[in-house]
Amino acid sequence: MRHVCCFLMMTACLLSALNAQAQSTDPGLLNLHARTRTETEAGSGRWHTTEKTLEWKPAETAIVVCDMWDKHWCENSTIRVGEMAPVMNRVIQAARKKGVLIIHCPSDTMEFYKDTPQRKLAMAAPVVPTTIPLERWCYLDPEKEGGGLPIDDKDGGCDCETPVRNYRAWSRQHPAIEILDGDAVTDNAEAFYLMKQRGITNVIVMGVHTNMCVLGRPFSIRQMVQQGQNVVLMRDMTDTMYNPARPPFVSHFTGNDLVNAHIEKYWCPSVTSTDFLGGAPFRFAGDKRPHMVIVSSEPEYKTEISLPRFAGEHLGKDFRVSLVFGDRERENELPGLEVLKTADIALISVRRRTLRPESLQIIRDYVASGKPVIGIRTASHAFCLRDKPAPEGAADWPEFDREVIGGSYTNHWGEGPHTKVSLAEGADRSHPILADIDLSQLSGNGSLYKVSPLQPGASAILTGTIPDTPSEPIAWVNRRSDGGLTFYTSFGHIDDFEQPSFNRLLKNAALWLVQNSSPNRTLSSGSQ
């Protein structure tokens, strides 16, 4: 009898567990992987980027398609909308099948739709009083939005060779996006009235342009958030009006990333089309940028300040960059490290951190994939404590220096003199990593590291000397046992970044590593 009771209890527990699992993965719910940004500490200007899953009921959710016009006054914008529209239509089809309301909002084209049932559906929604008026346009609030947008779009944002601006080129929504029975068409507050009529509290916004209509329209992000709706942006189904000839002088696609990040910081999370379609997020054909993930967790040399600045000033034309910072309260946590799974190149600036085993495994898996690594300064002793094992529950990698960096770090010479830089014996001065670098204008502001001897796979490019001490390698390339390449430099003091030659060295190394990684590895199309 006791065996029967135990069996029944075990069965009940198993059924309970299966039921709980079924509830957490309810196929009737929308499971959205929402990316959010939270400041690492108040006023720091640095942000953790993390992801959480939202479970929304389709009947309580609407998709707002913002200003996906058939033609734009900017030809490049028209081309990008035409490229994105068929994929957006597939997202809409999948969402419609799940029971999501589709609200098409091609502003200033209502005359085209005036006799359609979709237009009449929106017009029939009863007016709802709101405490905050639904204006025709909601302008940027500098106090709420960190002072302003991260791009200069004062010229209208056209990135054509011969830019034009501001005439009404559109007459309807792009024809690749189907408008079917049960959908609605509007370009005003009717969108919100219809949501309230149907008990819809969740809104997925997609369309163009993030720095303009996607933020400002009465049916879009600022105003829907202000009305208390749960809002997310579908960030791979968007574009930005940004001209790379304007600050911050980055690629058009980096400009789009910057505005998406602005929205995540100050307004709402973002998701991607993969939540409906699977596979990889949409990427414009012209976006060839490799994805660099910069991991910074060391308080000594302030790379949490220098590396974001370096990325903003030097990488935006050539790379898509994600930043991962250590947690101030829990120094062995790296919130958002999962983004490394989609990286094409990693830049590591970490000092004596032991991590949760699953976090360190992400780094191990990345290295094992053979993808390139840049290490600066304390990366030679990134994932181990000094002369003691990892504490219980944490994991370390004391062999990281030998296996990945290619050095033999033991300590450093005393503080004081600047390090003089020379070409390493046998090194090629014409190596692409040294292109356009004046070695006479490069010196080390931190203490000289003791890293000799280099591992067999490492080849020194630069050496450093200080008075009355042996010279040491300060920059080298390591061919790892997994076949991947690492560039390392023991420079990385915050004052090193004040030297144009040092910034150029890091950028050259990043470009060379990506170009010389295995041709069998394609660039990641992972999370945007």
* Derived structural class: alpha/beta
Describe the sheet with the most strands.
9 strands, mixed
User: Based on CA inertia axes, which overall geometry fits?
Assistant: elongated
CATH superfamily annotation of the largest domain = Isochorismatase-like
- State the oligomer: single chain
Number of helices: 12
Low-pLDDT parts are: 1-24, 519-523
Overall number of domains = 2
Q: Return the CATH topology of the largest domain.
A: Rossmann fold
Give the C-alpha Rg: 27 Å
Mean of the pLDDT scores?
Answer: 92
Order of strands across the biggest sheet?
Answer: 10-9-11-12-19-18-17-14-15
Give the total of beta strands: 19
- Cα distance spanning the termini: 58 Å
Name given to the CATH architecture of the largest domain: 3-Layer(aba) Sandwich
CATH class of the largest domain: Alpha Beta
Fraction of residues in β-strands: 15-25%
Portion in helices: 25-40%
